[in-house]
Amino acid sequence: MRAAQSAGLSLAEISEVLAVVDGSAARRGQAAVMLNEHLRRAEERIEELARLRAALQQLAVSGELEALGGTPC
Questions:
Q1: Nearest to residue 5, comparing CAs of 18, 24, 23?
Q2: Checking CA distances to 42, which of 9, 36, 59, 68 falls within 20 to 30 Å?
Q3: Residue 28: Cβ within 10 Å count
Q4: What is the mean pLDDT of the chain?
Q5: For residue 8, what are the contacts with CB-CB under 8 A and spacing of at least 6?
Q6: How far from the centroid of its chain's Cα atoms is residue 70's Cα?
Q7: Domain map of the chain by residue range?
Q8: Nearest-5° Cα angle at 11, 8 to 17
């Protein structure tokens, strides 16, 4: 359960996954679809964070902070 929570699943989603462990193949398929969708959203977020990281790194080394009245890191 802690691993699922660490992976960002809500308690409702964890409950749904646990309910299908003993369920039919169709229910297991539904859980797989839900987990794959969660994975897709996580991958999108990782890509967003990578773009943010690159932008911040560029800002930190470009000297643009001085132009804004700030000081470089």
A1: 18
A2: 59
A3: 14
A4: 82
A5: 38, 42
A6: 32
A7: 2-63
A8: 85
